[in-house]
Every structure is written in structure tokens, then in C-alpha cells.
Design a protein that fits this description.
Thrombin, subunit H, alpha+beta
């Protein structure tokens, strides 16, 4: 079974110029993909540790901000992955998906 089939949540993948920002420990990190259960973000520094619990927020293009608590699962610069301790709102992810589809329609 492929990794994609094993995922529990639908992921929103972002083009480079549309990435929401992860705000964590006074740092800003672009989010390359996001689901209710977790996020993959770009980070070049290693101030975080795997299995570390963190609190932060996500700032979206429309100005919305969502607070979260999560665990750092993987650090593989230039990318890192975290797992949310409480799922993100499904409504926000569908809004993001619709916004991206309107801006980048499939031909």
C-alpha cells in the first residue's frame, strides 16, 4: 500500500507563492502541505527536536489564524513534519482547497 493510501486525512498542497505561515517559537516557516492531522513545513535550522511538543499558530492568506499544539515527527532539512494533537477545523481546509482551485483551475 502506498504512503498516500495510508494517510488518514486529505492534504492541501500549496504552490510556493501561496503557502500559509507556521508561527513557531518566534520563527516563521512556510507550510508546503496541510491536513487536519499534520503539516509539512520548510525549515533550514535545527532548533527543533524530533518528538518535541510545540505550540504555535498558522496564518492563512485571508488573515485567519489557527492556534495548535503538536508533536514534531520528522526533521529532514529543508523539511519538517508535525502532527497536531487536536485536528484542525475541516471547514478551514475545505475553504483553502476551494480558494486554490478557483485561483488555479485544473484544465
Amino acid at each position: 500500500m502506498s504512503e498516500k493510501q495510508r494517510r488518514d486525512h486529505y492534504r492541501v498542497s500549496y504552490p510556493a507563492n501561496e503557502m500559509p505561515m507556521l508561527i513557531l517559537n518566534d520563527g516563521l516557516y512556510p507550510i508546503s502541505n496541510l491536513s487536519q492531522g499534520g503539516a509539512q513545513f520548510i525549515c533550514s535550522e535545527l532548533s527543533l527536536k524530533e518528538n518535541q511538543n510545540v505550540k504555535g499558530s498558522i496564518k492563512f492568506e485571508d488573515g485567519d489564524r489557527i492556534e495548535f499544539q503538536a508533536e514534531i515527527l520528522r526533521l529532514r532539512p529543508p523539511r519538517a513534519t508535525l502532527k497536531f494533537l487536536k485536528p484542525l477545523p475541516y471547514k478551514k481546509l475545505t475553504e483553502e482547497q476551494m480558494r486554490l482551485r478557483k485561483k488555479y483551475p485544473v484544465v
